[in-house]
Amino acid sequence: MERPSLERSEIGIGSVRTLLTELESLTQDPDYEYYYRGHSNKKYELVPSVYRNSGWIANEHRMFRELILRCPDDFHELETTFQKLVKMQHYALPTRLLDITGNPLIALLFACKDEKYKDDEKTKEKSADGEVIIFRLPKKEIKYFDSDTVSVISNVSKQLFEFEFVVKPDETPEKFSEQESIKLLIHDIRQERSSFEPKIKSEHLRSVICVKPLLNNPRIIRQDGAFFLFGISDRKSESSRIPVSYIYKPNELRLVVKAGDKKKMREQLEALGINGGKIYPEIDSVASHVKSLFEVKANA
Q1: Does residue 50 lie within any of the structural domains?
Q2: Which of 37, 66, 219, 290 is the most buried (most CB within 10 A)?
């Protein structure tokens, strides 16, 4: 069967070696850090999961509280909203976090996941091409888990869907923070950071930032994980966007994993010790991986 041709703006990643060769061409700069993300379908957008369904973003504040209400023992030792969002993200609750990794092979594994889609209701399911995205981030703009800016954006999760703000020209943070919506946000922030000054910069709320989390979670450690934390665009219903300057590729050329090459590359990654059982250390995920190793396929 003839492979579909790649678009002119794409580079085909048909093996682990091909990806590593591409990475060797990266311009190394000590003032920047590189992160990666793998999409099992190249049509996916760089948006956090809570914005992928209108019901989720409309009820983000409720989902946040409902999970804590139902599983209090899992959250009682977590001090900040960001730490709770990280836990929720790993429990697959939609959040305003987007996972990224410092390990390109882990990103490739995610890009090699099987993904089916339909062009319309009448056509049969097709296997989707994946993609590896490379981010080049200025070190000075990367935040740590205990940053004030991280607390500001994280606590947007607790606000009602109607949360919004108005930015006036040359407005000071003190004046901006006099809005009722911002006062409510500051109230939530000060519940976890009592020393937080009651003033917020509007540009922080509008930003998307890379955050390095606490390495207190086996999954984060094994995935060499970090997160993009998404602010809003003046109203909660609209997410901020990752700055174009952060995207090293596909700004130049997209690194596309053709659907027909995914199985072969999963086997290559397995040989290198990169598999679902390693990056998802919980017993149910490890059991699922072990089961797949010995499964007899119907067409085998």
Answers
A1: yes
A2: 37
Whole-angstrom CA distances from 94 to 51, 54, 67, 99 are: 8, 11, 11, 12
Per-residue model confidence as pLDDT tens digits over 77-132: 999 999 999 999 988 899 999 999 999 999 999 999 988 776 666 677 888 999 99
Say which residues have a Cβ less than 8 Å from residue 225's Cβ, sequence separation at least 6.
99, 100, 101, 102, 213, 219
**Residue at 72 is within a domain:** yes
Count of structural domains within the chain = 1
Q: Which domain holds residue 194?
A: 10-285
Q: Over the stretch 198-221, which tens digit does the pLDDT of each residue have?
A: 999 999 999 999 999 998 777 777
Strands of the chain (E only): list them.
10-12, 32-39, 97-101, 116-117, 126-127, 130-138, 143-144, 208-212, 225-230, 247-249, 254-257
Q: What is the pTM of this model?
A: 0.88
- Report yes or no on 137 lying in a domain: yes
The answer to whether residue 196 sits within a structural domain is yes
